[in-house]
Amino acid sequence: MNVIQALLRTMGRELAAVMEQYAEEGAAEMKRAARELRKNAGKETKTPRTPRRARKIAPPAPPAYTKGELIKAAVILSELSGIPAHEIATDHEQRKKAYRAAVKATHSDLTGDNEKIVQVNWAKGILDIP
Question: Does the reported pTM lie above 0.85?
Fold first, then answer.
């Protein structure tokens, strides 16, 4: 019995030492946290702002054009590019091709006439060509 009691006392002392060490480390951590809180007590915490460029802004609603304006725009591009108007009106890729061909044909550096390129740019806006 004496050996067992001695062993328990020794283990108890070691256990008490380990527990004391953990308590000291925890107390030090608590003191560090309390210092940090006191240091920041007078300061307001601000949430970081999202940069202006990163904000989500809804794109503006496209203007409502009449059917007549859409047809007229397709016809203008058709006359200048040679692509049928019904293809321009229905297929987005054909719109791009027609616009590029019309710009090449009516560019003011080539023709010296600004009226046609203004009509082509108007048609581009109506048909929503990027």
Answer: no
